[in-house]
Every structure is written in C-alpha cells, then in structure tokens.
C-alpha cells in the first residue's frame, strides 16, 4: 500500500523571497542545512542545493538557474535504438535508492558533487517518502538509474548513472511514463540545467519566472501514484 509522504519537521531557515533573487546569477543563497524540512521547503520554492567553494571555503549553495532545464512530458525524444533498449531492462522503483545515489556519487566521476553529507540527506528524505529512484536492472543486477525529489507534481531530477549502454536513458523513459496521469499537463520534470546531452533527449530551457509560475501550479497537485512510502 502507498501512503502520502511524511511531513518533516519545519525548517528553521528562511530563504530569500523570489523578488530579491539576482536576475543574473544562478546562485540565490548560501548556508542553511540539508535537513528534510529544509530540502522540501527549498524545492517547493524552486531551489536546489549544491556545494560551492568561495574564497577556498566550501559552503552550501542554493541554486535557481536563470534558465531552468525542464523536460516536457510530451517532448521526450526516444530514438529507434533507445526504443529497442527499453525492452532489454527491468524497471524498478525505490528498490535500491541508496545504491543509486552511491553510484551517482561515485568519486571517480568527473565534476562529482554528491558528498557523503548529500548521500545521507537524500537517504533521510527517501525514508520519509520525498526522494525516489527509478532503476534499470538486468539479470538481477542494478545497471543504471536516476534519483530525485517529488513534491506534489514536481519531480526534481538530481542525478543519473549507467553501467550499461542506454541504462540511464531507459530510466528516464520510465520516469516520464510514471508521471503520465490525469495531471500530466501540470506536472513538472525539472533537470536543473540543460546540457547538450539532455537537449538531445528533449530538455528545454525555461526562464526563471516561467519556471516559478509552472512550479506554483505543479506543487499543488498530488504526487504520482508510483511514488510514496510502503506501509
């Protein structure tokens, strides 16, 4: 049985209001913490955390890209070869969340930012029913997947990995399928920034103001049936 996410303790931190955000800077704020209440509040406001180094000191940064990477649910580009690959994997949801985050945070990956503190924080969020993984398996082995945060109709994708060709792309195809319900026209699949790779899959850029308006409508929705806490 699925139940709604468990409300975390309220955050003691106050994020700056949208009207004060620098229109020329993706970085909105510094500080706060990675407690579940802080994370849920931040995502609902259009923010996500990443570590930043300023003056040789690492700090916790909160970002809202000036142009946000978003994948329209009707805009995913599935090539003929990817469509064939979809048949080669088993899809599971939330069966190996910690393993997916660990693979995404492999220190051997370039530009890694998923520190042990981030891994613990999203693990806590997962156990409360707010963070989820979509996984690709082959022959009983985890070979790819993605994880992110679900707040109402928002799914904020954080990272993905693959150990076999197309395994992460297949997880993305599965995620889009999971979000396709009666609320699909208002659901929001956020991928933070558009990269050339993500653009090839259909990710577009939304100006910050448009993203925040879409987010306001999206977070009012119930979460997708696929996501929740077993109870």
Automatic annotation (TrEMBL):
This protein's record includes keyword Cytoplasm: yes
Molecular functions (GO terms): transferase activity
Transmembrane stretches, start-end: none
Enzyme class: transferase
Record localization: Cytoplasm
Coiled-coil stretches noted in the UniProt entry, renumbered to this chain: none
Domain of life (superkingdom): Bacteria
Keyword Zinc in record: no
EC numbers, comma separated: 2.3.2.6
Record key words, sorted: Acyltransferase, Cytoplasm, Transferase
Matches recorded under SUPFAM superfamilies: Acyl-CoA N-acyltransferases (Nat)
Pfam families (alphabetical): Leu_Phe_trans (PF03588)
UniProt-listed NCBIfam families: aat
Primary role: Functions in the N-end rule pathway of protein degradation where it conjugates Leu, Phe and, less efficiently, Met from aminoacyl-tRNAs to the N-termini of proteins containing an N-terminal arginine or lysine.
PANTHER family noted in UniProt: LEUCYL/PHENYLALANYL-TRNA--PROTEIN TRANSFERASE, LEUCYL_PHENYLALANYL-TRNA--PROTEIN TRANSFERASE
Protein name: Leucyl/phenylalanyl-tRNA--protein transferase
Biological source species: Nocardioides flavus
Origin organism lineage: Bacteria, Bacillati, Actinomycetota, Actinomycetes, Propionibacteriales
